[in-house]
Amino acid sequence: MEDVLTVYNRPVDPNRPRLCFDERPCQLLDDVVVGFRVEPGKAAKEDNEYVRQGTGVVLLAYDLDRGIRYAQSRKQRTSADYAEFMAEIVDTQYADAEQIDLVQDNLNTHKYGSFYAHLPLQQARLLSQKLVFHFTPKHGS
Asked: Is 83 strand, coil or helix?
């Protein structure tokens, strides 16, 4: 935990941005019954029955220094999704950064190996050198 707190307390350095990353699995639900018409002065009424239309995941990186969020929705959460998301963020938003501190949980896909398994070798090597992983402790949230 001290490692993560040290990253949070570090002063802003334009050459070394600080990002937090996480993903959120979601159920995709649809209504069985169309919602009731809302009348002025009355509470909206909804039926609690739904049909499950699958699942998805939202990937989100938050720039602590600039207050900017980068998000994508994906059909699933795989090491390929993680690698592609990180590559896109780094390539488009942080190409000039020397290093990037990345705070994230210790999920099995959050590894440098995900880059090498799903990206061209040169790009994977660049990401592995540029991103400095800082893992939140288990049950730390």
From this structure: helix
Contact residues for 130 (Cβ-Cβ < 8 A; gap 6+): 90, 94, 97, 98, 99, 100
Separation between Cα atoms, residue 137 and residue 133, nearest integer Å: 13
Domains of the chain: total: 1
The boundaries of the domain holding residue 109 are 2-32+47-135
Q: What tokens does 14 get?
A: 């334009």
83-101 confidence digits (pLDDT tens): 999 999 999 999 999 999 9
CATH of the domain at 51: 3.30.420
User: At a CB cut-off of 8 Å and minimum separation 6, what does 76 contact?
Assistant: 55, 56, 57
Pair of tokens at residue 107 = 């999920």
The count of other CB atoms within 10 Å of the CB of residue 124 is 19
Residue 15: half-sphere exposure toward Cβ, Cα within 13 Å = 1
Q: Side by side, which strands form the sheet with 18-31? A: 68-74, 50-63, 18-31, 100-104, 131-135
Of 105, 85, 99, 108, nearest to 128 by C-alpha is: 99
Q: Which tens digits make up the pLDDT trace of 34-49?
A: 767 788 888 877 777 7
**Amino acid identity at 98:** E
